[in-house]
Design a protein that fits this description.
By secondary structure, the chain is an all-alpha fold. The chain has four helices and no strands. The protein starts with a helix and ends with a helix.
């Protein structure tokens, strides 16, 4: 990115993708949540809906360049923090 590009992404209202830097399967997230909460999860699998996205991943390049963003938590750590936050909010 050139300097002009950097100035562009720092504008007020700019949008940034944030993520862990790697694709994660939904089943891996479910296994992690099951391990954290210590209970069997009730999961229902349905046929894909029209317009469902099969694969997605956050490109964090813009946030890294403009904000110095870098993922700082692994999946299990982030899931545990989310579960703790939800429990504290109920």
């Amino acid at each position: 990115m050139g300097q002009g590009d950097c100035d562009e992404v720092r504008k007020v209202g700019a949008v940034y993708n944030l993520g862990g830097g790697a694709r994660v399967r939904v089943n891996a997230v479910l296994r992690g949540l099951k391990k954290i909460v210590g209970k069997r999860l009730r999961v229902r699998y349905d046929a894909p809906q029209a317009g469902d996205v099969r694969h997605t991943s956050a490109d964090c390049t813009r946030a890294a360049n403009a904000l110095g963003y870098a993922p700082s938590a692994r999946l299990a750590e982030g899931l545990r923090a989310e579960v703790e936050w939800v429990h504290g909010s109920i």
